[in-house]
Amino acid sequence: MKxxxxxxxxxxxxxxxxxxxxxxxxxKETKGGKDKKDFKVAMVxxxxxxxxxxxxxxxxxxxxxFGKENGLAKDRNYKYLQSQSASDYQPNLQxxxxxxxxxxxxxxYLMQADVQKVAKxxxxxxxxxxxxxxxxxxxxxxxxxxxxxxxxxxxxxAGSQTKTGKVGFIGGVTGPVIKRFENGFKAGVKTxxxxxxxxxxxxxxxxxxxxxxxxxxxxxxxxxxxxxPAAGATGNGVFTEAKNRAKNGKKVWVIGVDRDQYEExxxxxxxxxxxxxxxxxxxxxxxxxxxxxxxxxxxxxNFGLKENGVGISSHKDHVTDKALKLVEEYKQxxxxxxxKVPGTDAEFKNFKVK
Amino acid sequence: MNLLKxxxxxxxxxxxxxxxxxxxxxxxxxxxxxxxILAYTSLFEGIFGNSYNIGExxxxxxxxxxxxxxxxxxxxxxxxNIGVEGQVLVGWLASVYVGVSFDLxxxxxxxxxxxxxxxAGALWGVIPGFLKARFKVHEVITTIMMNYIALYMTNxxxxxxxxxxxxxxxxxxxxxxxxxxxxxxxxxxSRLHYGIIVALICSVIMWFILWKTTMGYELRAVGFNQHASxxxxxxxxxxxxxxxxxxxxxxxxxxxxxxxxxxGYMMINAAFTGVGFDGIAVSLIGANNAIGIIIGxxxxxxxxxxASNMSSVAFVPIELVDIIIALIIFFIASxxxxxxxxxxxxxxxxx
Lengths: 354, 351
Prior knowledge:
- The structure holds two protein chains of two kinds.
- By secondary structure, chain A is α/β, with parallel strands linked by helices.
- Chain A folds into two domains: 41-145 and 280-303, Response regulator (Rossmann fold, 3-Layer(aba) Sandwich), CATH 3.40.50; 147-276 and 320-349, 3-Layer(aba) Sandwich (Rossmann fold), CATH 3.40.50.
- Helix content of chain A is 45%, strand content 17%.
- Chain A contains eleven helices and twelve strands.
- Chain A has a six-stranded parallel sheet with strand order 2-1-3-4-5-11, with helices on both faces. In chain A, strands 7-6-8-9-10-12 form a six-stranded mixed sheet, with helices on both faces.
- In chain A, strand 1, helix 2 and strand 2 form a beta-alpha-beta unit.
- Chain B is an all-alpha fold.
- Chain B has one domain (35-315): ABC transporter involved in vitamin B12 uptake, BtuC, CATH 1.10.3470.
- Helix content of chain B is 77%, strand content 0%.
- Chain B has 14 helices and no strands.
- Chain B has helices spanning 7-31, 36-48, 51-76, 84-101, 106-135, 139-162, 181-186, 195-212, 214-224, 226-231, 236-262, 275-285, 290-313, 318-350.
- The interface between A and B is large, with 46 and 47 residues.
């Protein structure tokens, strides 16, 4: 018995030594490409993982684009670490800081407390946080988005294209971020069509597709014909419901969120357009600034329409020309500062259609 | 075949299992184009490489020891407590509630918070225990369901009553905190806290209750054979409920370790923490005894902390790291089959 174990062991070891030799060759190749620049940037995903079809994925896409455009080597100069539970955030951030990365991103507001702690412990490290703010910390760049501005644009489209005069908004969890989506959307709808009604409901979950489907079902039954869900994976249920109805010959629409969700609407083609939040653009910009020696530490960066941080997706075949014109008109007004899109309930109350 | 018998072999089995798992894991890594030797050295470094990593490993061990104790304690009484996860969550919330809402001197506040967590976990364990004892409802089903109730209930309570910015509760007061500047400094800023002492004390308590008290004797007797125990005049129902209560209490304290130590608050959990489920594996690796559980938790905690270094330095994707960890558990679990088989063969020889 012992001999067998021994034999197995040595075979295994021999194999690993041999093949390990092959492995190191490839690493030399990547090393060759690295000498160009020594800038190192990395990100830590939240529990959604790097393929969440949402902001983690988008951030990684931004980092990859940044790496490629600057001739950096993947893994050595730019990489991501995935977190499997909330307890991984801090060790992952610490690890990257200790590996002397010039810039380390924490993706998502869930990491706020962890980024804050690491930033305090390592004052020389450069950190960046997406979707939240660490106050009074000079070595953290805070990346926020003006979701209300992008939501305003899709609100304009919804307002001008609704046939029933009723549109719906489904929120994930009540909080300042989702409130920006809601109020921007409502303002957009009212601007395009003051008589339109907006149904609003919160699912209080980002991961409950069945709940999204339920709410969508109620909304569509009430005569709503366009729904804008800002609810993460809960929103996937809205697509399911819309597709079911489309199969039965009833035309209803969904407006995608965060990324271009055109594909989620297929094959029944129920995606009217999408409100995109360009996390990739923000990650790209901040990485570039940092590489150029202009790390925006301690600042709160707001990515809005002006900064090309939010907008509508390129898939807009179903959007009428009239609506597109309206979108273009208000986009310019917002960029020029003539229209201020409300981001909170209080601001919405005071919002007047111009 | 006598080779497979004896003390030495029972120690050797887990060691061989780990080695075998590492070899197979290495082959898997080679097949997917990664470098196993670099990966394993980085794994090792990720566990022991510097004081920070050691601190984080011990920190990760702490709740795992307690969760392992919880599973093992119920198992000794013949019960499968799959509900450790839920008991961890209610214990966590209870400890944070006490930590946030009371103003007491440390010497009262901290033990009070830990005891509250234990009581909350115990209550969460008693419900399935009672259903099992009174109505013969299988504890596996009820404890799994209680996990979901705990997850969503704690989330709802935080959202409704204790919400602070960042989808979490406020920080617990310093008087209820297990965190220690001294431990953090010597481990270069890790989140190591005094909870490890609590966990070790609990290991001794578990050993003492099971092996040195009448109560423990009864619990084990019920675990071996309910009918015989009843015939011997023991109250089986009482023992079932009691074992679930104590098991739940350990799990609740595991939650307190997270609430008062690692985080100092509780967040709204989108999914289970995994501590309770890992506890099942830890108690299995540790063969349901206290020292074994500490070793099992060290192995598990080490792998978890080392894993991120493995993916960071050797670029092995975290999913592949999970496969290798799963292989190690798989081999340890199947080594018991080898053990059992060899016993069978040995007995057969004597007949």
